[in-house]
Write a structure and sequence with these properties.
280 residues, Globin-like
Length: 280
């Protein structure tokens, strides 16, 4: 190890807490890192100490990129849990590097012209290490976002997969929906024609309507229209003396429920695609 590099590493390692405190003061007050302002100063200092004490291992490691993950992943997880935006987290890393070099300059670590010239190599090495950390933090942060979104959407995804019976073009789900529509037609005929009643059996229709909207998104509203049409036509034919308003409201609610669920599923699909591209 060259003397000037060893001098810098020794300084950072021995004064890790002091440099970290200066960094914490900086990041907690900086206008570009407002999310850090409400954090505990000791917690921020701890993150700085973790990095500065790891600096020797990263600098001397055969694979510094892998060694940097020891700090990067922990840092990314901490800032994500604290809901700190990624841009602020990256700028905090910039301040972390800046405070390192400001302290080294203030201490007169590189005094002679030769040392100042040779220090350029240390500077380049340090910049490289921080570049690794910045990239890894961004990568881990994105991974955490994607995992969180997947977790929150897992219930909807499971329901969609089970209700739609797998792939979008699976023929079985079309036959299943046709069976629901046929059952609805028979049920409506039975209550209107034979029992001559408007009894509220139509609540059962919401099951296929919701399933259709989950499977096909906005296109699923056509199933709601079909059930509404069956209900209204049957009323016209078999319940001529019964007020029409009740079934009109029910048919309207079919369309509303189908449309709302379909619209929500379309948004869920767009969010999934967005974060799939984001991950890629």
């Amino acid at each position: 190890m060259q003397a000037y590099a060893a001098k810098l590493i020794d300084l950072i390692e021995s004064k890790a807490e002091k440099i970290a405190r200066q960094w914490a003061d900086d990041v907690i007050k900086n206008k570009r890192t407002p999310s850090f302002h409400s954090l505990s100063k000791e917690m921020v200092i701890e993150q700085g100490v973790d990095f500065y004490r790891l600096f020797r291992r990263m600098s001397l490691a055969e694979n510094p990129y892998e060694e940097a993950k020891t700090f990067s992943w922990k840092y990314a997880e901490n800032i994500y849990k604290k809901n700190i935006p990624l841009r602020e987290a990256i700028y905090a890393l910039i301040l972390l590097r800046r405070n390192l070099w400001l302290y080294a300059e203030f201490q007169g670590t590189f005094v002679t012209v030769l040392e100042k010239t040779q220090a350029v190599e240390s500077l380049n090495r340090t910049i490289l290490l921080f570049d690794y950390v910045a990239y890894q933090v961004t990568e881990k942060y994105e991974e955490l976002i994607h995992h969180d979104v997947d977790k929150r959407l897992s219930i909807v995804q499971t329901l969609a997969k089970k209700s739609c019976l797998g792939a979008e073009k699976n023929i079985l789900k079309y036959w299943l929906m046709a069976g629901f529509i046929l059952a609805g037609f028979i049920l409506t005929f039975y209550y209107h024609s034979i029992l001559q009643t408007e009894i509220v059996f139509t609540h059962l229709f919401y099951i296929p309507i919701v399933l259709a909207s989950i499977c096909w998104g906005r296109k699923g509203i056509w199933v709601a229209f079909i059930f509404g049409l069956i209900l209204l036509c049957s009323h016209v034919i078999f319940l001529k003396g019964v007020p029409f308003s009740g079934d009109i409201i029910r048919a309207g609610m079919f369309v509303v429920v189908g449309g709302v669920v379909g619209w929500l599923m379309e948004d869920v699909k767009q969010v999934r695609e967005l974060f799939s591209n984001f991950k890629a």
